[in-house]
Design a protein that fits this description.
By secondary structure, this protein is an all-alpha fold. It contains four helices and no strands.
Length: 89
C-alpha cells in the first residue's frame, strides 16, 4: 500500500512541477533552453528511480543514470536565470 501511495504522490508532484515550468516559460518572453536542463534532469531522476523500482532495474543501471543526470543538472545550473526584481526589493 505504501508503495502505491508514494508512487501516486511522486507522479502528482512531477505533474505539478511540469505545469509550473511551462507556466514560467510562458511568462518569460525569451528563454534559453539551457536554463531548463537542470529542471528536466531533476525530474528525470525521479522518473528513472520510479521506473527502476517498478520494472526491477534498480542497481547499476539506475545508479549510473542517476549520477549522470545529477552531474548534467549540476553543470547546467550556471545557465539558470535569476530574478533580479526580487533581489532589488
Amino acid at each position: 500500500m505504501w508503495v502505491a501511495l508514494t508512487t501516486v504522490l511522486l507522479l502528482i508532484l512531477i505533474g505539478i512541477t511540469v505545469k509550473k515550468i511551462f507556466m514560467k516559460m510562458k511568462e518569460t518572453p525569451v528563454i534559453d533552453p539551457k536554463s531548463l536542463v537542470t529542471s528536466i534532469c531533476f525530474l528525470l531522476i525521479g522518473i528513472v528511480n520510479l521506473a527502476g523500482y517498478w520494472f526491477g532495474f534498480l542497481g547499476i543501471t539506475s545508479m549510473a543514470l542517476t549520477v549522470a543526470l545529477l552531474i548534467t543538472g549540476a553543470y547546467f545550473t550556471r545557465y539558470l536565470q535569476t530574478d533580479h526584481a526580487r533581489k532589488s526589493e
